[in-house]
């Protein structure tokens, strides 16, 4: 990978952030690995003002380790640039996994009601418990963890899994080692870098030092060969997986739990897509005996209830989970939650409670079903074109193989030629190279149109 | 939240970890279940040493637990909470109706919104720039909307990392120190002084007009400064803030300025650090809708990071903060943001002002009460907190006495740092009747 010196304009998911006039400060020449033959946008910034004041505060060395912006704002930036280039194009976004379908009324009316009640004497509430409203915690426990020995008090309601991941990193600190699937959701690696758990990025292998990358590929059925994995303190495991769509079997998770137990590790299990599972494979790590002593589970309402903008999720830290000195992990997590957080929005929590009513659950299943039907259309399309297609059965993501090709190149080609945004596999780690992630969130009409365009391109 | 006292085997048994000063109590307000539970497995993951450094739970849940214990002891007592600074008055309808509308819109095809920009909705960022920072040249692109100041403080700590030194006012809002300890900026807690090694404590008391003597303050990378102050209620003057900015500039420090109570200012004290020339190159400002609009449960705030603010190597702080926000956060709730926008409309601003004035009147009543009792009470004019001096006392003892004898909860000053010893913080949030009733009870106790 050649280095291209770019004057960086930071990225964000709103294109307005991109404009170089928004920064009138110094130019910083920072070496950024150019995507292989990809489109690199060099943005000219004004020359450095001489004698501009600088503080004497050192930049956090961990932040300097990060190679580029977070993946999804980069995708958004590319999308925005493409729209500028082709203002009349009907861009279809199958990139960022952003939900598109309206939230069922049974849920939004609960949020409307809670909002309204905040302007009444009887209904007004101030600070809520940082761990979440009791009723919601109880509903989560009984809906998802009945018969697993997980109680209300083990559940910490949050503003989403992404935020919880960073709070878990704060909990663990910089002196722990971590393992991730490769490819994986970028927040695990990035938050680990920020926390100081990793070494430098090694450009030749595209990996950060001190992280154990657990390759997940078609060859190993997207489950790592644990016999070749080094022991680490923390193991991040996402199932159903983002981006590969693969969902681990009971047998595989039993292996994983045993592996963690033998090594004294803690699994951070991300089950944000569990509701997309099509058969009877586990929806929670706590279905596996012994998991409570080795695992934390984090998940979200985002992809079930379309709460991507409403912001609600939860993390389960079992009482049985202990640090090496016997101290309960939940106690420290509670301290983090009380100090670094102040609870999820009470309105979002009211929505969450409605999600877990019988009517709400039914409505959520319908939305999930809708997205699963989208997924099938996309899977069928790529299958019909002769591609090797993975995922799509237990998750709203389709993982398409483009052997021998750079995923950013394929991403760029698809975007340029069909105006469809996807996500290049290498954005999820070196194990994602050669793959494209197509997300199945979208209005049916858009998904059908996208399938048409794929067929035209790859006919 | 309660904990089982777990008898562990074969792991080492848990040492008493929940220590409340001055008592060692291992309870919460809820029922303590002591049970023998056989636990076969300890992981081999070491506990984060930084969390070990924290001796007690976070301050405000501790107060909550004491209240619960008290209620169990006196189930018929009418407890008046002037402890945790929790807003009590309903949010004006003009604001909640906007949130109702946004919630309902989410179930329509046209109105549905998924992920928002992590930095916040453009319209809200613009409104904050135009309304809160009118005339101050703060750009919407410098504003990061959040789910509250407490959360932002920790994200700022993540940004800064463990290799920076910090200064705090003493006393101060506990999240600054606690988050600094968690991220690894602090050394051990010194029992004798009650201070963490490696943190510079800037004493603020009546003797120095609640503004630190900067000539005796060591240089640190970061200076946390809250004005109007929680807990003392003191709002720094323009002249004082100019000194602070000058001090930061001279030392190459970054001020993290917490202006969460700016709306309570009654005089012409600055409402934003950016009213001070030169602040843009040395300061970040954190603020919140919590005490401004009763959003304590709704969760909304913002942080301003000026473009000019640079690390020693010239790298813009805003770039790294943006990266943090995009990686460790996913935006404030879209419904909360709709409420925030309504707060900043002309009608919304007026309505919000009405509630703030209500709390300020509460503060005046409390201030008068203590004054009439011959006690030295500070604050209460530019903030919803009254800072009462009980010379020679242990603040936890005074807290206990007030709770026991009048069923009023307050916050012992010691909870905000060693500089808070001998003081009690009385918060002015509450229904008027409760405030008046509390006033009566306090008069009876201390007469």
TrEMBL record, chain A:
<dbReference type="InterPro" id="IPR015422">
    <property type="entry name" value="PyrdxlP-dep_Trfase_small"/>
</dbReference>
<dbReference type="Pfam" id="PF00155">
    <property type="entry name" value="Aminotran_1_2"/>
</dbReference>
<dbReference type="InterPro" id="IPR015421">
    <property type="entry name" value="PyrdxlP-dep_Trfase_major"/>
</dbReference>
<feature type="domain" description="Aminotransferase class I/classII large">
    <location>
        <begin position="90"/>
        <end position="454"/>
    </location>
</feature>
<dbReference type="GO" id="GO:0009862">
    <property type="term" value="P:systemic acquired resistance, salicylic acid mediated signaling pathway"/>
</dbReference>
<dbReference type="InterPro" id="IPR019942">
    <property type="entry name" value="DapL/ALD1"/>
</dbReference>
<dbReference type="GO" id="GO:0008483">
    <property type="term" value="F:transaminase activity"/>
</dbReference>
<keyword id="KW-0808">Transferase</keyword>
<comment type="similarity">
    <text>Belongs to the class-I pyridoxal-phosphate-dependent aminotransferase family. LL-diaminopimelate aminotransferase subfamily.</text>
</comment>
<keyword id="KW-0032">Aminotransferase</keyword>
<dbReference type="GO" id="GO:0030170">
    <property type="term" value="F:pyridoxal phosphate binding"/>
</dbReference>
<dbReference type="InterPro" id="IPR015424">
    <property type="entry name" value="PyrdxlP-dep_Trfase"/>
</dbReference>
<protein>
    <recommendedName>
        <fullName>Aminotransferase class I/classII large domain-containing protein</fullName>
    </recommendedName>
</protein>
<keyword id="KW-0663">Pyridoxal phosphate</keyword>
<dbReference type="InterPro" id="IPR004839">
    <property type="entry name" value="Aminotransferase_I/II_large"/>
</dbReference>
TrEMBL record, chain B:
<dbReference type="GO" id="GO:0008483">
    <property type="term" value="F:transaminase activity"/>
</dbReference>
<protein>
    <recommendedName>
        <fullName>Aminotransferase class I/classII large domain-containing protein</fullName>
    </recommendedName>
</protein>
<feature type="domain" description="Aminotransferase class I/classII large">
    <location>
        <begin position="78"/>
        <end position="431"/>
    </location>
</feature>
<dbReference type="GO" id="GO:0030170">
    <property type="term" value="F:pyridoxal phosphate binding"/>
</dbReference>
<keyword id="KW-0663">Pyridoxal phosphate</keyword>
<dbReference type="InterPro" id="IPR015422">
    <property type="entry name" value="PyrdxlP-dep_Trfase_small"/>
</dbReference>
<dbReference type="InterPro" id="IPR004839">
    <property type="entry name" value="Aminotransferase_I/II_large"/>
</dbReference>
<dbReference type="InterPro" id="IPR015421">
    <property type="entry name" value="PyrdxlP-dep_Trfase_major"/>
</dbReference>
<dbReference type="Pfam" id="PF00155">
    <property type="entry name" value="Aminotran_1_2"/>
</dbReference>
<comment type="similarity">
    <text>Belongs to the class-I pyridoxal-phosphate-dependent aminotransferase family. LL-diaminopimelate aminotransferase subfamily.</text>
</comment>
<dbReference type="InterPro" id="IPR015424">
    <property type="entry name" value="PyrdxlP-dep_Trfase"/>
</dbReference>
<dbReference type="GO" id="GO:0009862">
    <property type="term" value="P:systemic acquired resistance, salicylic acid mediated signaling pathway"/>
</dbReference>
<dbReference type="InterPro" id="IPR019942">
    <property type="entry name" value="DapL/ALD1"/>
</dbReference>
<keyword id="KW-0032">Aminotransferase</keyword>
<keyword id="KW-0808">Transferase</keyword>
